[in-house]
Amino acid sequence: MGKQSEFVIETRQLTKKYGDFVAVDKLNLRVRRGEVFGVLGPNGAGKTTTILMLLGLTDPTEGDVRVLGLDPTRRPLSVKSRVGYLPDQVGFYDELTARENLIYTAKLNGLPRQEAYRRIDEALEQVGLAHVADQRVGTFSRGMRQRLGVAEILIKQPQLVIMDEPTQGLDPEASREFLDFIRQLKQQKITILLSSHLLYQVQAVCDRVGLFYRGRMALEGTVQDLAKKVLGSGYRVFVEARGDRDAIQKALMALEGASEVRSVGNNRYEIAATQDLRPEAAKAVIQAGGKLFSLAVEEPNLEEIYARYFKEVEHGEAA
Amino acid sequence: MAKPREQAIRIREGSPWTGLWAVVGKEMADHLTSARMHILELIILLTAAGTVFAASENLRTTVGQDRFLFLRLFTTGRDPLPALVGFLGFLIPLIAIALAFDSVNGEFNRRTMSRLLAQPIYRDALLFGKFLAGLFTLSLVLSVIWLLIIGMGILRLGLPPSTEEVLRSLVYLVVAIFYGGVWLALAMVFSIVFRQPATAALASIAVWLFFIAFWGFIASSLALVISPVRYGFLEEFARLAQTELYLARIAPNTLYGEATIGILQPETRSLGVVLPTQLQGAILGSPLPLSQSLALIWPQLTGLIAATLLLFALGYVLFQRQEVRA
Q1: Do A255 and A280 form a contact (C-beta atoms < 8 A)?
Q2: Which among A90, A245, A267, B51 has the fewest CB atoms less than 10 Å away?
Q3: CB of B44 within 8 A of CB of B91?
């Protein structure tokens, strides 16, 4: 066991090749203790392969991995007993009950019986499956299975949780509940690595995100960071004001942090900015002799960043 | 990461058998409660009861004249029923295949594989646990049949079995278990190779049919090619017969059949080609002692065990190299 490092996950030049196909290409990924890190990217970007290498389920072709300071290829058992993994579309044994499924996991983890039963009861309670604990999993909905997957992670009492597309195929209500679980885990100081296509959800729970593209980390940082990098300006401020159009537009343009001001019809203006400029915009409108009717802000949107980034990448390649 | 590299330590951490018994326990519970096994158990119990009943009808007339009356329960058939050992020669592969054909691909299809392997166990424990669970289940079923036959024998024949008969039938039990082990390991290999359980089941059954229905014919044709009879000498015919026998022994059912006859019919003196000169001084029809019968079937028994281990090793290698993602 290495000393408690700041980074829970650390990869250096991590590479995985399947024949000629490079699934993960010299990846450098660092996840800090206690943070929720979102991994984004199109299908085939190497997200799942990276996760499998973190768990020691696939050996890297080249490069280094450290998970909780341990090398998963050399010490897979230590890593796997400290890390909870929720695969995409998690499966359980349909003919067993929820409790029996968890008992099997507890046994595989070598938990003493009393302790295992106690943790199973707690976990089922926490994910809201206590009332169906003794029903066969075959009768469970997709959302309930996913919650059972979370319960399985909880009985391991992990230091790190890795989730691969956890909300795929869930209905909106179940997704929302699931995001609450992630927030609960975060409150318990558990580090979480989350891979997802659903950008809105990633944005809702993640502290930092990494954008994977063709096995590489194309972009990394907080959503605000990415917005600055990709969009130039992440915030949009909408102003509705009456008065001299040119004067207002000029005043808004003069604001620090505003990169573009457009007039969008009937006394409305849209400002592209690097931060939330509402107070400054209000002041500017009034100083320009205008009457302010409404102010609204749209925060940087991961969806937009994602779309713009891949448009640029493809554009760059086509050229 | 500037700490001393762990590269010097090449061996893996911990025991490869961590979690083995958890897997065995779970898999055995699955086998013993599954509808599939219940059907097979029913078939096998009916067969055992039927054949032994028929055999005992035949044998009641000869009570007192035969030293190995109990063993005859296993080997006596009555038209139209074949003997119990013959039936088991068909049924054991069927049970073994039924136990294993979806063992690995089933986990993938249920999407439980990645979740399982994310637990702190090695793949070794998972595969070996599944194999052991299958073998134990098979042993359990066969032991039940064995007890049933002994019990029915006592009831129907009115005699207890002798120590030697018990020992011989126990050796037969071991032979039968490893005969099943071969098919269990084969079905497991197919369950690793094929993603669809139905494909794995069909492939296993195809191999089984091939050995039971066609291998004898192919062996004799091949023997003619390998050891042709050119001049009609006796040695040539003996060599042809020998080659054919060696080829036939590639089939697990041949090994099972020979081992069964050798141990359950104590009069059997040889399982190979015997020339008249080799029989000089032998008292035909007199039984061999148990130790000699054991020596006689030893190659067949070890052959079955070796085939089981080889097939398991093949499956093990394939499974270790398999990618976790579906």
Answers
A1: yes
A2: A245
A3: yes
Contact: A77, B121; criterion CB under 8 Å: yes
Which structure tokens are listed for A264?
């969008």
Contacts of B320 in chain A (CB under 8 A): none
Domains delineated in chain A: 7-221 (3.40.50.300), 235-298 (3.30.70.100)
* Closest CA in chain A for residue B11: A74
Question: Nearest C-alpha of chain A: how many angstroms from B316?
Answer: 16
Q: Indicate the helix (H) or strand (E) that contains A163.
A: strand A160-164
CB A109 within 8 Å of CB A156: yes
Which chain A residues contact residue B34 at CB under 8 A? 95
Residues in a beta bridge with A12: A64
Q: How far is A173 from chain B (nearest CA, A)?
A: 24
Burial of B309 (0-12, 13-18, 19+ CB in 10 A): middle
Give me the interface pTM, i.e. the ipTM: 0.86
B68's CB contacts (< 8 A; 6+ apart) are: B164, B165, B168, B266, B287
Nearest to B324 among A52, A105, A108 (CB): A52
Mutation target vs A (from B28, B112, B123; most A CBs, 10 A cutoff)? B112
CB contact set of B214 (below 8 Å; sequence gap of 6+): none
For residue B326, which of B18, B112, B16 has the smallest C-alpha distance? B112
Partnered with residue A236 across adjacent β-strands are A272, A298
Partners of A221 in beta bridges: A209
B121 → chain A, closest CA residue = A77
Instruction: Encode burial over B232-250: b for 16+ CB neighbours within 10 A, e otherwise.
Output: eeeeeeebbbebbbebbbe
Q: What whole-number distance in Å separates Cα of residue B300 and Cα of residue A12?
A: 55
B60 shares contact with chain A (CB less than 8 Å): no
d(CA B166, CA B220): 36
Helix (H, G, I), strand (E, B) or coil at B246: helix
pLDDT tens for chain B, residues 1 to 326: 444 444 445 567 888 888 999 999 999 999 999 998 899 889 888 888 888 888 888 887 776 677 888 888 888 877 777 888 998 998 999 999 999 999 999 999 999 999 999 999 999 999 999 999 999 999 999 999 899 888 988 888 888 889 999 999 999 999 999 999 999 999 999 999 999 999 999 999 999 999 999 998 999 999 999 888 888 888 888 889 889 999 999 999 999 999 999 999 888 888 877 766 776 766 767 888 899 999 999 999 999 999 999 999 999 999 998 888 75
Which of B30, B111, B118 is closest, CB to CB, to A91? B111
Cα(A6)–Cα(B64) distance, integer angstroms: 85
Cβ neighbours of A89 in B, within 8 Å: 111
Contact B9 A152 (CB under 8 A): no
- Note whether B23 contacts A: Cβ–Cβ < 8 A: yes
